């Protein structure tokens, strides 16, 4: 027992050391990254958006076992045969983006190429792409055009790892897909990635963000792996200076990154085990699934309720972060019916009065555990929004607040709320009125 504990501690210390060394290897000898004015503005706009939709769609959806299916046994060449049957006859970019827009989400993040290695656009760098399927139409193009048309931000997910290509030097995943390790050739693979990224950032109009994933594949290497990120980031920023770069490495951001993301955790929480890193001052984003898996999984019908999703969005915003909520589209090209229902419910809530307490806000000062949180408008004397997320509401709540409240209203109904200052405790006590229509979140708008 004792031995096991010591081994575990040593292992985690080594891992931490590796991560730090890797980070050093990434940043040393580089000129410091200075974001352009347009990049800084893009970061602000990104934060103001607060809500986006993640879309995990690729060949893996055909197997309906989630996006990691190739990692769990299939041979890459057998797996690739499904490309010859990929025909999402019901895919309609306009329908997807319209439903997403109606949900109140302001941007999407689409998986252009996941760990399986299949490209969802007309890439000239590899034949393993959407054009060589019976469907034969560029998915990224259709989504990009539709996003631009409807005014929805476009972020592109791009995996740094590849379980199919021989030139990618495998780390700790994708080891049973039938690749020949002797054929690994990092320089060749790195060039391939940069050529693909150049296509994405040149041929599809404005790209608001690149969302990298897979760095962790080499986090157990004894010799720190050099991903050559600074050069890659510089290339992206040269092609589109306002493009926001994020990397799902579960570390504090590296030089050259413009945002920090958290996988399945609200910043400051680490229930999922991947979010122990410190929080930077960059824009923050939490990604989370609507059900359990990122890619479509036939047995995964365990959707969070609309109430849970609304509360998740509120708690995330109350930490000053965006929520990137995932949907795994079906093999036929449709978004699952339950996901569409959830989008509609969130839209009803956000496009009602609640939106003003989410968009363009920052973290608020009032926080009493998970159930009473707050957001705050921007600027001097901006209103504070206290969100009560419990099912049962008492007649009043007492909170500690800095400013002197002038007026309090129920944001959803617009009713004025009575409040008073308790001399003994210094707390402000708000009287809650009838809560019809705001069961998911009772919002007190406090003006100063
Ligand atoms: C993890 C998973 C990946 C998924 C991502 C989304 O990195 O490996 O499949 O796309 O999380 O956050």
From TrEMBL:
Task: Record the organism.
Answer: Prevotella pectinovora
What are the residue positions of the site described as May be important for catalysis? Answer: 287
This chain belongs to the protein called alpha-L-fucosidase
A GO MF term: alpha-L-fucosidase activity
Query: InterPro entries attached here?
Result: FUC_metazoa-typ, GH, Glyco_hydro_29, Glyco_hydro_29_N
Q: Say which enzyme class the record assigns.
A: hydrolase
Q: Which domain of life is it from?
A: Bacteria
The Glycoside hydrolase family 29 N-terminal domain extends over 22-353
| Pfam families named in the record | Alpha_L_fucos
Q: Which PANTHER family does UniProt cross-reference here?
A: ALPHA-L-FUCOSIDASE (PTHR10030), ALPHA-L-FUCOSIDASE-RELATED (PTHR10030:SF37)
